[in-house]
Design brief:
Helices cover 60% and strands 4% of the residues. The protein is mainly alpha-helical. It starts with 22 loop residues before the first helix and ends with a helix.
């Protein structure tokens, strides 16, 4: 692993840790329905297959339509890594990973700040235009609607 040169802001920059939380732990929270929603394991085999197909298509877009750096960061994020873990692995600062995913904020606009760029925003646009992704999402919605009407 490559050693990172200390940035001047390291002396005063706050560091936040991201953690993954087991959905079962959220079931005991006071947030109505959040834990139960995340802990649901009632998906049909067909729905799980569609999720796998969707992930395959999204990863195709990540590999082919994002920059190499954005692709690495998004792939590691989808693998469950936190921004801090990704930064450590890539030898950069956590804020660089955040900007890669979310883009930059420009505060010069009179009506409020605007966000520019970011891999997530770009991936959302790419997915919305991709026919295969849209078809899978439509099938997932139909299946979910059928399950809701059967309950």
């Amino acid at each position: 692993m490559r050693e990172r040169k200390p940035a001047p802001s390291d002396a005063y920059q706050w560091r936040f840790a991201e953690i993954s939380v087991d959905p079962a732990l959220l079931a005991d929270t006071e947030l109505p329905g959040l834990g139960q929603f995340l802990a649901m394991n009632t998906e049909s085999e067909e729905f799980r297959d569609l999720k796998e197909q969707l992930l395959t298509e999204v990863m195709r877009l990540v590999r082919t339509r994002l920059t190499p750096n954005q692709g690495r960061v998004v792939a590691l994020t989808l693998a469950g890594r936190t921004q801090a873990e990704i930064a450590q692995q890539l030898g950069c600062h956590q804020t660089s990973v955040h900007k890669c995913l979310k883009g930059n904020i420009d505060y010069r606009y009179p009506n409020g700040p605007r966000r520019h760029g970011g891999a997530i925003k770009r991936l959302q646009v790419l997915c919305a235009k991709d026919k295969k992704v849209c078809k899978i999402l439509e099938e997932m919605k139909k299946l979910r609607d059928e399950e809701d009407t059967n309950e």
